[in-house]
Amino acid sequence: MHRNLGAVLSLLGRLTDDPPRLAEAVEHGRAALEIYAPGSLDWAIAQNNLAEALRVLGERTGDRDALDASVTACRAALAVTTRAAFPRDWAMTNTNLANALAALGGEARLADAVALYRAALDALDDPRLAPAIRHNLDRVEGRLHAMTTRASPRPT
User: Fold this and answer.
1) Residue 72's CB: how many other CB atoms inside 10 A?
2) Smallest Cα–Cα separation from 75: which of 60, 57, 54, 90?
3) Spatial distance between the Cα atoms of 25 and 35, rounded to a whole number of angstroms
4) Is residue 102 exposed (0-12), middle (13-18) or buried (19+ Cβ within 10 Å)?
């Protein structure tokens, strides 16, 4: 119940730009982790849902701790949802991790996000999900290009 309620509250919070609802989603996500056995697929899905709520909350409120916690939750989920065993879940969790890294910003994190988006696209067998990932990839590649172009010395 907590996992599904957290996911719904996260979606509502994102759609209505409601940080208190997102914070409630985070609470339910954390409660879900106490129900499922660590290392189980249900636990990994709960970690991924929690990561999404944390990322959106962090983006909306500027809370870098929430963004860091999102990265940690994604990495925990990826320990279970391997590419070989669960390619779709792995691709979606990689995408969530890339989104969190992109939200944190910085050249190294953006480069990591680009690599994660590309890996997710490579592994994805569901063409309905690919356009959103490609959109995020294009957006982050543009940010990274702008960042590296500004940082490059101009010829004299």
Assistant:
1) 16
2) 90
3) 16
4) buried
Please, are residues 94 and 116 in contact by the beta-carbon 8 Å criterion?
A: yes
Q: Which amino acid makes up residue 82?
A: T
3-class DSSP state for residue 43? helix
pLDDT per residue as tens digits for the range 48-67: 999 999 999 999 999 999 99
Which residue type is seen at 6? G
Please give the mean pLDDT across all residues of the chain: 92
In the prediction, which pLDDT does 127 show? 81
Contacts of 9 (CB under 8 A, 6+ apart): 21, 22, 24, 25, 28, 53
Q: Is the pLDDT of residue 111 over 90?
A: yes
Answer whether 35's CB lies under 8 Å from 79's CB.
Answer: no
Token pair for 59: 């983006």
Question: Which tokens in the block code for residue 19?
Answer: 């940080």
* 52 closest CA partner among 31, 66, 35: 66
